[in-house]
Amino acid sequence: MDRLKILVLDDDILYGKLAKNILKEDFTVYTATRPSQAFEIIKTIKIDILICDFRLPEMDGLQVVKNVKENFPDTEIIMISSEASMETVIEALRLGAVDFFQKPFDFESVKISIEKTKKYVVLNQKLKQIELSNSILSNEIKEKEGFEIVSRSPVMDQIKQIMYKVSQSDDTSVIITGESGVGKDLVARGIHYMSNRSSKHYGAVNMSAIPESLFESEFFGHKKGAFTGAINDRAGWFEITNGGTLFLDEIGDMPINLQIKLLRVLEDRKYIKLGTQKEQEFDVRLIAATNKDVNDLKTGKDFRLDLFHRLGTFEIYVPPLRDRKEDIIPLLNHFVKRFGSKMRKKAMTLDPSAENVIMNYPFPGNVRELRNLVERAVILCDSDVLTMDHFPYISNSNGNGNADNGIFDLEVIEKNTIIRALEKVNYNKTQAAKLLNINWNALHRRLQKHEIILPEV
């Protein structure tokens, strides 16, 4: 961390100068002779440690400690005095001071105390980073995307800290690895929203779904008439996300020819929009993601090693849900609340007897599977308590994600869920589609697929 900022508050001007001369070699030191002067300094400069005398004009040291801890809780305080009683010392420590020295004292002892106090400062900064990342991830992503990173596991706390640190470096490229459904997209969005690029656009592209013939159009854009079918001007992803963040999902499935094209433009940081001759520069942070083993990508067999290093300055691995079981119930409760509110249902809780069963289910589809299962359960539930009856797939699972008699028929679950939804709205297809969170056409296709015949109403 940077040099600690120390403020010495003592009405003895000579003593303050002496303290500054001795401490300035190791710390950045400020001095004040009155509490009001000290408060003005703390308001404008983030002071890490206040060394405060007890006997002062305007107010005594105990009042200073109380004021500082109430208004500037991150500032640690070391008390000094030539005449304070033991009761005063105890009260100062109770109010938040971390150490006390009787005048006259050895400044080397004060330095040692400052170094010990530094541990509090560093720990506090780490906690603030976690709180900040949680706050931003909860508020920004929830506001913009409708969902948030919910976790209780230590490994996810570590990932959030890493996300925050990476976000503070605007140009660092990141590659996120992990199984499908673990939330790699949420990590990417979180990094964007915590960064200085958050006011600019965030874009997401599925790299496995882009045909080679459309690569330039997708990423560079085109002018009207640039090729057959170009009936309008179109901005490419590098233009849309300029100044912001571009998320390249499923990068490991990208065809090798497109890898070469992407590498070339990333090296030059320039592109030419189709139908023009002018080179355009772009400033975009790239975040890539893959569900492939990162060690397989590093072999260079199916993925260019030079492109991997270009995209993966920093690697973040998101573990599967089965390896962070502490997150299962908080996530489940989060989704229950979300879908219950969306479907205008009364508050629901999980039957305690179901908790262990759900906790021991391996969730091969990770968070995405949990989300889908909860959505179905909320639709099926007519009471305010979710039981295992509302989680038929887990109930019929043999503990490894498969049903007792082989693969459990998800089609049956879908059909029964649709029927239950239709019954709830008196077979009104428009209302049933809203309840199921799908459009009318999608519901109509599923009715045909499952041969569901609606009664006349």
Write a concise keyword list for the protein shown above.
Rossmann fold, Helicase, Ruva Protein, domain 3
Architecture overview:
The structure is a single chain. By secondary structure, the chain is an alpha/beta fold. The chain folds into three domains: 5-123, Rossmann fold; 152-319, Rossmann fold, CATH 3.40.50.300; 322-449, Helicase, Ruva Protein, domain 3. It is built from 19 helices and 16 strands. It has a five-stranded parallel beta sheet with strand order 2-1-3-4-5, sandwiched between helices. A five-stranded parallel beta sheet has the order 7-10-13-6-14. Helix 3 links the parallel strand 3 (49-53) and strand 4 (76-81). Helix 3 packs parallel to helix 4 (86-95) and helix 18 (429-436) crosses helix 19 (440-449). The longest helix has 39 residues, at 107-145. The N and C termini lie far apart (71 Å). 31% of the residues are buried.
Main β-sheet, spatial strand arrangement: 2-1-3-4-5
Q: Give the end-to-end Cα distance, rounded to a whole number of Å.
A: 71 Å
- Structural class designation: alpha/beta
Instruction: Tally the structural domains.
Output: 3
Instruction: Estimate the global geometry from the Cα principal axes.
Output: extended
Number of helices, where a helix is a run of at least 4 consecutive DSSP H or I residues: 19
> What's the Cα radius of gyration?
30 Å
Q: Which fold name is given in CATH as the topology of the largest domain?
A: Rossmann fold
Outline of the structure:
The protein contains 19 helices and 16 strands. The protein is of the alpha/beta class and 457 residues long.
